[in-house]
Write a structure and sequence with these properties.
By secondary structure, the protein is α+β, with helices and mostly antiparallel strands. Helix content is 33%, strand content 14%.
């Protein structure tokens, strides 16, 4: 590694800050089409463990798998809960 003490900016090397910033939107949970398990838990008051348990089956009507990450279709989950007597 060279012993040059100049910074990247002095050498003309600049990295875009936007490239590494995480964009955060303040969208209310009741307006989002899909929710994380944590968001679903907050939204419904049902524990995250119970949501994981309810969404384990392959034919679950309210889950979308994004790789190994599971997200919950909000409207489908609400409709599912409306039809249930107990969970």
């Amino acid at each position: 590694m060279p012993k040059d003490s100049t910074t990247q900016e002095e050498r003309g090397v600049r990295m875009s800050k936007k490239r590494y910033e995480i964009v955060s939107y303040d969208i209310p949970l009741w307006l989002k089409p899909v929710l994380s398990v944590t968001e679903t838990s907050i939204y419904t008051g049902i524990s995250a463990n119970k949501i994981y348990e309810m969404s384990e089956s392959e034919d679950c009507p309210f889950v979308i798998w994004i790789g190994s990450r599971r997200v919950i279709k909000r409207k489908s989950f609400e409709e599912y809960l409306e039809r249930q007597y107990s969970i």
